[in-house]
Amino acid sequence: MANKEHRYGLVGKNIAYSFSKGYFKEKFKKLGLANYSYENFDLQDINEFSDVLRKTSSLKGLNVTIPYKQEVIPFMNSLDSQAEQIGAVNTIQFTKNGPKGFNTDAYGFENTIKPFLQDYHKKALILGTGGASKAVAFVLSELQIDSVFVSRNPSDEQMSYTDLNDKVFEEYTVLINCTPLGTHPNVEKKPNIPYQAITEKHLLFDLIYNPSKTAFLQEGESRGARICNGHRMLELQADRAWEIWQEVS
Known about the structure:
- By secondary structure, this protein is α/β, with parallel strands linked by helices.
- The chain is 30% helix and 22% strand.
- The chain has eight helices and twelve strands.
- A six-stranded mixed sheet has the order 2-1-3-5-6-4. A six-stranded parallel sheet has the order 9-8-7-10-11-12.
- Helix 1 links the parallel strand 1 and strand 2 (36-42).
- The longest helix has 16 residues, at 231-246.
- The two termini are 19 Å apart.
């Protein structure tokens, strides 16, 4: 890898399954970029990120995934204004002033969910509170959709899974899974919510892309709800990251 002139990669934990590596390798191939490479930096602890940064001279850009989208922020010399507002970074650009953090999850999520939204989709439940969920909340606010986080250990402004019932689901018709529950190979898992309360007016969005139809989405589909997985979102955020990297090439 070190002999490649343009090195890119993904920072995360247990990321052998990664979408990004395959996607960018295929992109480089299609664009005829023979001297471009993409690799996984599988870190067991965020402190190992310092070793990755020492390779900055050969690195042109990085993506960041679970669980480090918030933990990489202290390593950044600067943040794009949107990433600062969101409080999570999933794309790193190497500038002459050092690493700069961006968030392209918001771009990917907004442009994926918009075609599915109806006028009656006014309130959303965000299942999970990780880095990606912050981008989701930011976009929903921009779209003037009220949202509440649902957590196993909720703060005062969040809901617990035990708070969810038929009455809550009458009000909140957009359900977004930002947890890893249901990801391959554990495809039978799903968030613990009252699926019997889902109707054809609900929209279920799952950030997971493998499998393409999670147990969460299957439950929604069987009750007539609109469903969408995270594959298109991943493609869009990756393409936006590529554009950001090219700005300093």
